[in-house]
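ugh ok fine here u go
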Amino acid sequence: MSPIPSTALNKRIQPAGTPPELLRNFCIIAHIDHGKSTLADRMLQLTGVVDDRAMRAQYLDRMDIERERGITIKSQAVRMPWAVQAPDGTMTPYALNMIDTPGHVDFTYEVSRSLAACEGAVLLVDAAQGIEAQTLANLYLAMENDLAIIPVLNKIDLPAAQPEKYAEEIAGLLGGDPADILRVSGKTGAGVLELLDRIVDVVPAPQGSADAPARAIIFDSVYDTYRGVVTYVRVVDGHLSPREKIVMMSTRATHELLEIGVISPEPNPTDGLGVGEVGYLITGVKDVRQSKVGDTVTNASKPAAAALAEYHDPRPMVFSGLYPIDGTDYPVLRDALDRLKLNDAALVYEPETSVALGFGFRVGFLGLLHLEIVRERLEREFDLDLISTAPNVVYEVTLEDRTVITVTNPSEFPGGKIGEVREPVVKATILCPSEFIGSVMELCQIRRGDLLGMDYLSAERVELRYTLPLAEIVFDFFDQLKSKTRGYASLDYEPSGEVAADLVKVDILLQGEQVDAFSAIVHKDKAYAYGVMMVGKLRELIPRQQFEVPIQAAVGARVIARETVRAMRKDVLAKCYGGDISRKRKLLEKQKEGKKRMKTIGRVEVPQEAFIAALSTDTTGGKDGKAKK
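structure:
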């Protein structure tokens, strides 16, 4: 099969209404920085949907943060025309619906939603780096969805590329012949034409009934300031047309379809979407809760009997408090989170108050990069100055009277007699060169990990599987892993339930008074280290008073660490130029009494800067998006 110039093809292919047998729905899945967006750019150029004048690098990455960091955060769907030549010389025009997905572990929920809208997946592997942990995770996701897998080695133009070596590695994982694995370069365009032909060959056409009542699954939605919620759908059965009434099957909300069309790569209105087509709907609705991801859209006049399978809502892995530095910005932050929720289905938040920081929100994230991206988007897009508190996870505390309490914040940790504390654990997959096995195992043991298994993917690369407490990996585990393996290791993890653990709450006391904002829930073995670190930090941050201020770390009633902020000394003897010693002693005794009285009635004022410095997390695990899992 050989392609024909897409400029001629564009005149022959209709933007919508393509028969299902001429449709191919596929996504690109890979580890971060393996060249998904660059390959997507070449496909857009070769199929002619973006001309050379309008072309720019990372065309489908619409956000500034995505372009600056070189990572994909939001999945993007685009329709491309392509034609292949049969042996008898006839040309068959196809329509390819491609979804470019994120590669970072924190955005796996985006990948899973994209997979549900496709029949095939291009598994992209960097020819200079080989299979990484997230590559495997995405591969297993695609296999669970019964997708046709097309393995591809990218970046073959790099001097460090070893396509033969990594082709054997992939063939060993998937089965088949290493020679059948495509070699492409997203940068130069080499091999991309063959890849487009392979997609037409290997990816099955979508299945569905054109005569059945319309059913379309919502796989994403975004908010447009002028047009309201734009809903992205994949039609499974029937046909959707403009100006007809539609029903969202879970909420039973009825809307009129104001516009329906395809993304190619800009919105292109059409006269409807048929079986297997991917496109967008606009109903003018401003409330995104009426356009829930995973919901089924059907006709109001001829509704379907049963909805399509729903997505599972992503479960937050990490919680952090977000507070505006200026308290008057609280309503702005609330509105900003409401609007960001439209673009990010994984965001979970609820109001929270802190004695130190005022009003804010407790926000649930899928990981540290997700936290960092959300905070940066809030600050950029809504012009907010925010403090984010140290990330922590959710614990389940069972008291001796069998009462179960869910703790998302150390201040909620109950006092009194505790029967059991359960913490979330994850199954972690670490891929690294075999020379670093010792260092990686040592790090995992320090972080309370249990080895599940170890497999050699090749003579030089090994896969380690561990069960690790989530609290041990959400902060700086990945940085440590990269340091110990000279940057060669990759990490992927998934939730694996909860286990009982020996956890305690470390309280920080200033002059005997507990300050909730500085409390933390840590493992019993690490309580002393946390206490010493926090009291040492606060001793530097709290200004000296007229009296001595003890800073203590305590577990229950037992003090485990202490530092003291020395009192400011006023020289009361300065006015005594000689004379009897009793005069000096009298002045010193008077000062001593005054300090004692001040200590009993005085309060330690902790400045806002001290709270911000002790609680905030300006660096959350890496200088940029690439130095991540």
